[in-house]
Amino acid sequence: MNIVIIEDELLTAEDLTEIIEQIGKEVRIAAVLHSVKDAIHYFLDAPAVDLVFSDIQLGDGLSFEIFRAVRIDAPVIFCTAYDEYALEAIRNNGIEYILKPFTAETVGKAFAKYTVVDYEQLIRSITDGRDQQQVGSILVHHRDKILPISLDEIAVFYIDGELTRLHCFNGKTYPVSQSLDELEELSKASFFRVNRQYVVSRRAVIDANHYPPRKYTVNLSIPFKEVIVVSKNRTTDFLQWLTRK
Question: Do the Cβ atoms of 32 and 38 come closer than 8 Å?
C-alpha cells in the first residue's frame, strides 16, 4: 500500500510516518510533501497512491487547493489542529478527520476506517457519480463559519482573478472552493455556462442582446459589474436553454 503524507511540520511528519509504519502491514510511505506547491507538482504525474494523510493548513495555503488543482482519487485522512474544516474535508475525498496532537490510537482508528470502507464504491460516488448528485446548496466559508447557500439564491458563478466566486440575488458575493467546471456540473439543471468565466442562473436572465458577429450579451435581473458575453460556439445551446422554464 502506497501512502503519501502532506505535512509542513517536519517533526510531525516524522512522527506520523513512524506511527503509520508501525500500524500498517506492507505499508510504504511513497512521499512526504511539505507544501501545496510540492503536492500539486507530485500528483500531476498521477502516481499510484492508495491513501493520503494530509494536514489542512500548510505554509503556502490550505491543502484543499491541491485537490482543486489536480485530480486525486485516493481517499484522504485529514490531520489538523482545527475543527472548522470538517465539512470541506468531506468534500475533498475525506474519509476521516483527526485532530492534532494525534496519537497512535487515533491514527490507528482512522487507518482502520480506510481498511473497512468499500473503496470502489467510494470512488464511484466521488468521481463518476458526480453528475448524478442532486445538489441543492453550495458551501462557502464566511469569517469563522461554513454557510450553505441555496442554488435558488445564486444568480452567477464567475471567475475573479484566481478565485471562483458566486453572486447572490441579494447582492452578496462569496468565494467558493469548487472550480467553475465543478460548479457547472453541480448546477447544470438550472444554470448555463455562457463562456469560460461565467455560469448564470436561468432565474437571473431577463433576455439577451445581439452582439455582432454572432454573439449575445446577457441581461441580468440584478446589478452586475461586468458585461457577460455568450461565447460564439455556445450561442445555439444558450438560445435553446432560454426556452426552458
Answer: no
Q: Could you give the C-alpha distances from 211 to 201, 215, 227, 235, in angstroms and in order?
A: 20, 5, 11, 11
DSSP 203: G
Alpha-carbon distance of 109 to 103, in angstroms, equals 10
At 32, give phi and psi (nearest 5°).
-120, 115
Tell how strand 198-201 and strand 205-211 pair up: unpaired
Per-residue pLDDT of the chain (245 residues), as tens digits, is 888 999 999 998 998 888 888 876 678 888 999 999 999 999 888 788 888 898 888 888 888 888 888 888 788 888 877 655 555 555 555 677 777 888 888 888 777 766 654 444 444 444 444 444 446 788 887 766 778 889 999 999 999 988 899 999 999 999 988 889 989 988 888 999 999 999 999 999 999 998 777 789 999 999 998 999 999 888 889 988 988 76
* Cα Dmax for the chain: 67
Q: Tell whether pTM > 0.90.
A: no
Please give the Cα distance from 2 to 24 (Å, whole number): 11
Q: Which domains does the chain possess?
A: 2-130 (3.40.50.2300), 137-242 (2.40.50.1020)
Task: State the Cα–Cα distance between residues 39 and 7, nearest whole angstrom.
Answer: 10
- How wide is the angle at C-alpha 31 spanned by C-alphas 122 and 23, nearest 5°? 65
- Rounded Cα–Cα distance for residues 65 and 68 (Å): 5
What residues contact 85, with CB distance under 8 A and at least 6 apart? 56, 62, 64, 78, 97
